[in-house]
Amino acid sequence: MLARVHSAAVLGVDAYLVEVETDIANGLPSFATVGLPQGAVREGRERVTAALVNAGFSFPLKRITINLAPADVPKQGSAFDLPVALGVLVASGQLPPDRLGNTLVLGELGLEGDLRPIRGALSIALTARQHGMTRLVLPAANASEAAVVEGLDVLGGSDLAGVCRYFDGSCDIAPTRVDVARLMAATVTDAVDFSDVRSQASAKRALEVAAAGGHNILLIGPPGAGKTMLARRLPTILPSMALEEALETTRVHSVAGLLNGQSLKTTRPFRSPHHTISDAGLIGGGSHPRPGEVSLAHGGVLFLDELSEFRKNVLEVLRQPMEDGTVTLSRAAVSLTFPARFMLAAAMNPCPCGHHGDPTRDCSCGPQVVTRYLQRISGPLLDRIDMHLSVPPVAYRDLVLTAPAESSAAIRARVETARLRQRQRFDGVDGVYANAHMSARDLRRFCPVSPDVEELLRTAITRLSLSARAYHRVLKIARTIADLAGADDMGMAHVREAIQYRSLDRVGG
Question: Residue 392 has what DSSP assignment?
Answer without folding.
Answer: P
